[in-house]
Every structure is written in C-alpha cells, then in structure tokens.
Task: structure prediction
Amino acid sequence: MKQDASEAFENRFSENERARDFYLQKLAQYRSAGFDSPQFHADLNSGRESFFQQQIWEMMLGCHLLDLKLNVSAIHYNAPDFLVEHNGTRIWIEAISPEPKGIPTETLEPPSAEFLVTAHPHEAILLRWTAAISAKLDALTRYREKGVVSSNDCYLIAVNGCQLGWWLYPEGISQWPWAAEAALGIGPLTVTFDPGANNWGPMTNSARFSIQNANRSTIDTDSFWSDDYAGVSAILGTVEKNWSTGASAMSVVHNPKALVPLPRWLLGETLEVTSSIEGDMLTATKSHRD
Result:
C-alpha cells in the first residue's frame, strides 16, 4: 500500500497538536511545489529515525527556499536535492543529516533526573560533520562526471547536525559554526598567561587542521584550504530539530577558494563566515544578519 508522509506526522505528533499541524502545513507546501517523491514518503514511514530526520531536513530546507521566493526546483534522482537559479547562475544544493555514529549514547538522550557529568563529545561530533562534507564532495564528483553539475555552477552542501546530540548549539567548541571547524581548521579557544608579568593574554582561536578518529586515523578539518574542494561554494549548517518551536539559526560558511562563489545573504542565513587564505594564514570574519 502506498504510504503518505501525513501518516508519519499524525503518528509521531499525536500528542502535540501544534507540531502536528505545523508539519502537515509544511508537507502541503512541499507537496504543492512538487518536491515530494515516493522515497520521501516511504522514508518518513520507515520507522528509522535517521531516515525520518534526513527527509525532515530536506522538507524544511525546501520550504525555507520557497519562503524566500527563490526560483527553486527539486530533482528527485541522479542530481542534488535542489536547484536554485539566480541571476543566471545555477546553485545546486545537496542536503545531508549525518547519523550519530560514534557519539556516546548518554549525549543523544535527555538527561535523567539523576545528576550526571559527562564530557561533551565535540571531536566525535566534528568527525560526523567532516564525514558528511566528504561524502557530498564525492557526490559532486559523480554529478560532474554525469554532466549534471557544470564547472560554472555553484554547489552548496547543506548539513543539519540535529542527530548528533539531544541538545546542541550551532557553534562548536571554537564558538564558530561547526562547518567552520570542519572546513577552515578553526580550533578551540586558547589563552596565554605570562607568569612574569602575572598577566593573561587575549583569548584567540587555535589552528586545528586535523583530528583523530576512533581508529587513530588522521581526519582533515581544513578542506577549504584544499583545491580539491574548490568546486564546493559553501556549506550551509544548522542543528535544528524542533522546527515547530520557531525560527531556526542557519549559518553559511563560504569557501575562500570556491571556483564559483555563492552570493552572500542569498539563503536567509542568520550568520555568515567569510575568509581569506594567504600562505599559511587564515583570516576569518563572522557577520550577523541585522
């Protein structure tokens, strides 16, 4: 029997009328635009949380683009998820919500009533962001080989890290967006102390160009320093899961080496990161929407 996404929302939010009505409204908008596919409906009714969150992210992203009144279409097979045509430039958008592989179970569920202190698995979370970005670079290579995405097109990777913790901030331990940590090599905050002068220096970000995974393999966190990623224009990032509660924070981290840059402030983001690379020096700037 053919399944419909409305069933998934009715079942999941049976005791939350506000959320149920919100998602049903978004579903109607998504369906009216012709963005839904048989796979979309099947995944939402699959009972698998990772499938559900991936399709919710695609639906919410698609509706977000529609709300911005952009010229957007959805390509269901053998192409990125969305195509925006803007001022003669094609902007392909590939969405992904990475699964919480390697994330400690206790950080994926709300805490119990008992008092519990745990370390925040910021490196494990960052590894999932780097894996998602790498996977979508591989996808770009395939799209290029098939002639779907040309060298004159923008290519945007849209990552929702909502599955990587029960409560997450849009910034990592660096206080920069997760995508900036994963692609620009921005590391944790550091501060120096001069014992002779008994004086603390200014707080600055360290450089972190790689981290180790569980197998002790080195994973790069500086993909935007590499010409291999020049085909990626930018990364849009969020950690939003409870969309029905209000507006979400989205950031765009631009690739300073992009062959085709993404136009600034095009996607309704609340924060942008721009940067330049000169030799071994990165200069990055955060800009907030007024």
Remarks:
- The chain has a mean pLDDT of 93.
